[in-house]
């Protein structure tokens, strides 16, 4: 037995939550797990939404402070526009990592093309470390063709959104150029057939979860865990000596997102779109927003072009 194999001790599922459909924005529907009463404030993660936006719905002008959003498109297209002049489209497989920092006012609106799919995707809210709560807002964006891929075996494909995954012998370790403020890894794993395995290392002490997009997947040692089915979010154990997660596809086609993050030893105080580490911080966020100051200059005078179609 190799040293690499011997040190592979898999995490297991300690809680599995079915993502329930929830109204959000203006007429949109999301499947939410993290951020509900069943799974709240799983540091550093604040909310996980699997969105499907039908015609006539969207997310018109709204503010944020103190957190980041990772938006990963699955089908269709979305437009984005903010009050600092940043705008653009993201389509299938594209990524937008937005650091709201001390203030952003923006709109996120779907594009519906004749005969096309509804825009669907994942949006993960991630808490910012206290030291970065009031940093300047910024973006990291990648088109689908720019996101690195790992191929650990012929029937397993891994899109490396954030972090580092093991590829085949020719690829070695594959890393994403995305650099979040705080530790966060995010992988989109596709299995082409049942019985395929994938191993992902997870840093010691980090919190981790998975979300099933398609099919079913078993977590942990073979035979010791039941398959987890579509739309379930599974929190993983973090016991001493566990070095990663072993996944085994249990359906002919399976797709699973694996996410891990470094816990933040700070209070989470969230009120709507603002996430701070104290009640005083939340009060200051509302005051700054109302006064148009400290990151929200011009917020009340600004109207997005893309949001006007919902007025």
Quick rundown:
Residues 193-294 form the Pirin C-terminal domain. With 311 residues, the protein is mainly β.
Give structural notes.
There is one protein chain. The protein has helices at residues 3-6, 279-291; strands at residues 13-18, 20-24, 28-32, 45-52, 59-64, 67-75, 77-82, 87-90, 95-99, 104-111, 120-127, 138-142, 149-153, 156-162, 164-166, 173-175, 184-191, 197-201, 207-214, 216-219, 228-229, 232-236, 244-249, 254-261, 269-271, 274-276. It is mostly beta strands and 311 residues long. It has two domains: 23-84 and 111-135 and 264-311, Sandwich (Jelly Rolls), CATH 2.60.120; 148-180 and 184-261, Jelly Rolls (Sandwich). A seven-stranded antiparallel β-sheet has the order 1-22-19-24-17-14-13, with no helix packed on it. Mean pLDDT is 93; it is low at 1-5.
SSE layout:
Layout: H1 3-6, E1 13-18, E2 20-24, E3 28-32, E4 45-52, E5 59-64, E6 67-75, E7 77-82, E8 87-90, E9 95-99, E10 104-111, E11 120-127, E12 138-142, E13 149-153, E14 156-162, E15 164-166, E16 173-175, E17 184-191, E18 197-201, E19 207-214, E20 216-219, E21 228-229, E22 232-236, E23 244-249, E24 254-261, E25 269-271, E26 274-276, H2 279-291
Antiparallel strand pairs: 1-22, 2-3, 3-4, 4-11, 5-10, 6-9, 6-11, 7-8, 7-10, 9-12, 13-14, 14-17, 15-16, 17-24, 18-23, 19-22, 19-24, 20-21, 20-23, 25-26
Binding site for Fe cation: 62, 64, 106, 108
InterPro entries: Pirin (IPR012093), Pirin_C_dom (IPR008778), Pirin_N_dom (IPR003829), RmlC-like_jellyroll (IPR014710), RmlC_Cupin_sf (IPR011051)
GO molecular function: metal ion binding
């Amino acid at each position: 037995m190799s040293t690499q194999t011997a040190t592979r001790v898999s995490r297991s599922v300690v809680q599995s939550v079915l993502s329930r459909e929830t109204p959000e924005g203006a007429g949109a529907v999301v499947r939410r797990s993290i951020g509900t009463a069943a799974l709240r404030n799983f540091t550093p993660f604040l909310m996980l939404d699997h969105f499907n936006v039908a015609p006539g719905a969207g997310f018109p002008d709204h503010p944020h402070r103190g957190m980041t959003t990772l938006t990963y498109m699955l089908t269709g297209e979305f437009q984005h526009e903010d009050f600092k002049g940043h705008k653009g489209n993201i389509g299938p497989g594209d990524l937008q990592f937005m650091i709201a920092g001390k203030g952003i006012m923006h709109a996120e609106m779907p594009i519906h093309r004749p005969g096309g799919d509804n825009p669907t995707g994942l949006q993960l809210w991630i808490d910012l470390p206290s030291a970065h709560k009031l940093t300047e807002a910024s973006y990291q964006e990648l088109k689908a063709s720019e996101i690195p891929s790992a191929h650990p075996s012929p029937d397993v494909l891994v899109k490396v959104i954030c972090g580092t995954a093991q590829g085949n012998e020719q690829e070695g370790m594959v890393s994403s150029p995305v650099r979040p403020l705080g530790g966060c890894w995010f992988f989109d794993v596709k299995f082409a057939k049942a019985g395929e395995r994938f191993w992902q290392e997870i840093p010691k002490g980090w919190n981790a979860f998975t979300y099933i997009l398609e099919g079913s997947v078993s977590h942990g040692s073979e035979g010791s865990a039941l398959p987890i089915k579509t739309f379930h979010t599974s929190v993983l154990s973090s016991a001493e000596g566990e070095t990663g997660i072993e996944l085994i596809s249990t359906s002919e086609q399976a797709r699973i997102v694996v996410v891990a993050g470094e816990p933040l030893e700070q209070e989470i105080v969230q009120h709507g779109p603002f996430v701070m580490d104290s009640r005083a911080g939340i009060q200051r966020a509302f005051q700054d927003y109302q006064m148009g100051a400290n990151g929200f200059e011009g917020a009340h005078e600004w109207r997005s072009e893309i949001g006007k179609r919902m007025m």
